[in-house]
Amino acid sequence: MPAELGKLARLQSINVSMNSLEGVIPSAFGNCSSLEIIQVHNNKFHGNIPSNLAQCRKLKKLYLGNNFLTGGIPPTLGNLTNLIELRVWQNRLSGFIPATIGKLQMLQWFDIFSNFILGEIPHSLYNISTMVAFDLGYNQLKGTLPFDMCSAFSNLERLHLYNNQFKGQIPPSISNCSALKQIELDANNFSGIIPFTIGFLENLQFLVIGSGNKLEAKSPSDWMFLDALGNCTYLQGLYLNHNQLQGVLPNSIANLSKSLTALRLTGNPISGRIPPNLGKLTNLETLLLDDMLLDGTIPEEIGNLFQLKKLILKGNVISGQIPVTLSNLTLIEELYLNNNALEGSIPLELSNMRALQWLYLSTNKLTGRIPKEILGLPLLIFLDLSNNYFTDIFPPEIGKLKNIQSIWLSNNELSGEIPNTIDGCQVLQTLYLDGNMFQGVIPSAMSNMRGLQYLDVSKNFFSGPIPEFMGKLNLLYLNISFNKFEGELPKKGVFVNISGIDIRGNSELCGGVSKLHLTQCISISKLPKKRHQYHVKLVVILCFVIFTIVLAIGIPLLVTYYSRKRHVRLLNPKLMHTDRPFKTEFMHVSYHDLVRATKNFASENLVGRGTFGAVYKADMSFEHATTVAVKVLNLQKHGASRSFLSECEALRNVRHRNLIKVLSSCSSIDQHGNNFKALVFEFMSNGNLEAWLHPNAEVFVDLPIRTLNLVQRLSIAIDVATALEYLHYNGPNPIMHCDIKPNNVFLDDDMTGHLGDFGLARFLVPNDTVPSQSLTSTGGIRGSIGYIPPEYGMGGRPSVEGDVYSYGILLLEMFTGVSPTDERLRDGVSLHKHVKMAFPEPVLNIVDTRMFSGPYVEANTYASENVFGCLFSVIQCGLLCSNQLPKERITIRDAIKQLNSARKKLLSVEVTSKMLQF
Question: Does residue 830 lie within any of the structural domains?
């Protein structure tokens, strides 16, 4: 902007806003003594605000917003005594608010929104009786609001102080600002109760005091403000989210203004039922009651909110069925009922919600088939039905969802094949089908889905080859693990990025890029046809000959062997019970083998010590492993022998990818003639979880100090939970681990978690009052201090609920970084209580900040909505698992559902950031 403008002595108004002007604001403006209006907002000006603008004594309006101005607010602006509007929003201004601004006794609009202004608000500003709009949001202001702040603000209509660092109470005298229409104090550190005098503001339209404050309601009298707000007949928006409001939601909430369009109570520890009379607020468009402690059922009266566009009840303990009356909400666009305990089937009538775009029903107990009527909703963008108990086939009507971008059907009981109609979902980006019973091949119809970026079909029964077209799709992530795929893996697209694919559990796959270390493919079809036929005939003949010889020789030998064996056992009853700890499928090793492999149990091979012995690193060949871990029992320790038997008995009956794999055992005599017992396990190169959570513990002395990010911790937590689910539900009798703690969670090369150390494990025998005595390890309380369930200390027997308690404590420890035996937990405060006191807000103040690294978290600051939502679900899960009473704990299966939901929330970064922009 040319400095020559300063020569226009009679210039009264300049408006160059909404352009792309650059450079600095000319100081020559100070020469324009007749200037009354300067509007240079929405440009690209930089530099400081010229201090000599104070020479424009007739100036009434100064608009400098939305530029790149730096420096401070010039104190000389306090000389502009005729100034009515001072607006410098969205710049890069810093420093303090000059006290001289208080001299502007005609000022009506003071707007410094979105800068870097520091310090406290000068008291002189509260004396400007003409002030109408006071916009100070998104700065770094601090301090408290004075008790008499409204003594002169009789004309104030807008009070915007959000996203600063104010603290203390909201002064009851705020009712003296009788003209107030908008109060926005969210994202500060205000505390205390909400003053009931706020209900005296008859013109109030918006009250926004959530997101990061610590406002309380601990008793019914603390909710008086809600009764008083019934006087605010113009109230349109009430946002109290993420505070510390407790107790039951008062019925007086139904007395709020009939003009109310938005009600948000998210993230408060409010309990009890949803008041049915909420259905009287018939103009509501947004109702957010999520991430609280609500129980009971969804009132049918919610169906009376005909104007509702967004209903979010996720993250509670709501049970019962989805009421059919919700189908009356024909304008609704977003419906979140996930992470509750809803039962029954999805009402077919929900197909009346023709405007629905977001449908989230995941992590409930819903059953039945997926209604084809729901798949006819024309505007549906996101569909999440994961972590339920849906059955039947994948509905072919899925192809009708022309606008669908994300489909989550994970962890249900769906079967059949992927229908060819799936190619009708042309804009689909995310498809999660993992954890079901799907079968068949990947349909060729998916070759047309060029927008697909995330595909997870793991833990199903898919078979056949991986189609070549999969390498031509624009996939960023592909999980085909634990299926029955076979043949050659493509070498294009996502298959080149080994960090973006998971192919584990498909033993018949071959080829692929070299980094995957798969076996080379041998194609018989490439042999000459005649040679091929010859080879087939030869193989058939040889197989027949060998089979005949085996039958001829083997049967007589077997008959002779078993006859002699039975004769010997009858003569010597002592031989009727073998002392070998494992079945014959395990290869046994001798004491001398272990001595050689560990270099005589040298100290440099010692990797850790446990309750009943020490663990050594050994060089031995087992299956595909060349390095193993040898656990040598200290038989001088009371209970060690029983621990050995317990671990042998437990491990001989279990096989799971998240349980540490036993390779062999040794029960022998050492070089001194003493009894010797040892177990050989697969070696976990990344040690145990204790060494990662608390590096100074030096459990594994050869590990450098490292830490786990949020994604890794969540994955490991799910790994451990999955192992527990297998122990509790897979066999005829549940197996209780009885000693779940970080020391017993081991990490392999890929940082996958494996549960180990079954020295205290016990079987639960049905219709028996005590567990199997053959598995007793000690006569006292089972477990480790801090992780032992309360009922064990009162003589209770081991139970699956006890394991869940220990797991809950482990989960809280993983995400807070605080050990249950930490010296910070004093005066009888347990880790459960320590976390619960800070839940649900401010949960970010107690989590381990070391976890905020890694691609998913760095892409979204640790305080972002999706990370907060993930942490909320995880901490909530830990608290539910570690409740005092066993009957109040959730099952490990429910925990897995909640954690999978949390992981999906974290990993679907692009989707979630859109989902949570309320």
Answer: yes
Please check whether residues 679 and 727 belong to one and the same domain: no
Residue 879 lies in a domain: yes
How confident is residue 29, by pLDDT bands cut at 50, 70 and 90?
Answer: confident
pLDDT greater than 70 at residue 644 = no
**Is 631 labelled a binding residue?**
yes
88-98: per-residue pLDDT in tens?
999 999 999 99
The mean per-residue pLDDT over the stretch 603-616 comes to 80
Tens of pLDDT, residue by residue over 337-346, are 999 999 999 9
User: Does residue 782 sit in the same domain as residue 884?
Assistant: yes
DSSP string covering 423-457: GG-TT--EEE--SSEEEE---GGGGG-TT--EEE-
Whether 280 is covered by a domain: the verdict is no
Encoded amino acid at 312, one letter: I
Helix or strand run (H / E) with residue 467: none
Q: What's the rounded Cα separation, in Å, for the pair 839 and 825?
A: 16
CA 73 to each of CA 40, 99, 516, 691: distance values in angstroms, whole numbers, following the listed order: 16, 11, 60, 52
For residues 376-398, give the mean pLDDT.
93
CA separation for the pair 728, 715 (Å, rounded): 20
Q: What's the rounded Cα separation, in Å, for the pair 168 and 589?
A: 69
- Within a domain: residue 496? yes
Q: How many domains does the chain have?
A: 4
Among 85, 113, 143, which residue terminates a domain? 143
Do residue 739 and residue 608 come from a single domain? no
Distance (Å) of CA 298 to CA 70, 274, 275, 321, 366: 52, 7, 9, 8, 15
What CATH number did the domain enclosing 91 receive?
A: 3.80.10.10
Residue 531, pLDDT score: 47
Q: Tokens 């049970």, residue? A: 319
* pTM of the entire predicted model: 0.65
Amino acid identity at 684: M
Structure confidence at residue 807 as a pLDDT band (50, 70, 90) = very high
Share of the chain above pLDDT 90, in %: 58
Question: Residue 899 and residue 387: Cα distance in Å, rounded?
Answer: 10
Query: Over the stretch 198-237, which tens digit does the pLDDT of each residue have?
Result: 999 999 999 999 887 999 999 999 999 999 999 999 999 9
Same domain for 778 and 652:
no
CA dist 298 and 275 (Å) reads 9
The predicted structure's pLDDT at residue 635: 73
14 Cβ contact list (under 8 Å, min separation 6): 5, 29, 35, 37, 38, 39, 40
Q: What is the CATH number of the domain that holds 619?
A: 3.30.200.20
Query: Do residues 466 and 504 both lie within one domain?
Result: yes
CB 285 within 8 A of CB 262: yes
Q: Are residues 894 and 832 in the same domain?
A: yes
Domain that holds residue 127: 1-143
CATH number at residue 904: 1.10.510.10
Let me know whether 419 and 510 are in one domain.
yes
Q: Indicate the SS3 state at residue 790.
A: helix
Last residue of a domain, one of 652, 683, 714: 683
pLDDT in tens, 696-734: 644 444 444 578 889 899 999 999 999 999 888 887 778
Q: Are residues 766 and 891 in the same domain?
A: yes
Three-state SS across 136-157? CCCCEEEECCCCCCCCCCCCCC
C-alpha to C-alpha distance for 897 and 340, rounded to whole angstroms: 11
Look at residue 577 and tell me whether its pLDDT is greater than 90.
Answer: no
> Mind giving me the DSSP string for 192-258?
EEPPGGGGG-TT--EEE--SS-EEEE-SGGGGHHHHHGGG-TT--EEE--SSEE-EEPPGGGGGS-T
Does residue 848 carry a catalytic annotation? no
Active-site option among 739, 757, 803, 894: 739
pLDDT (mean) for 451-478: 93
From the list 409, 340, 417, 343, the residue with the least C-alpha distance to 374 is 409
810-862 pLDDT tens trace: 999 999 999 998 877 766 788 998 888 777 665 667 788 888 755 444 444 44
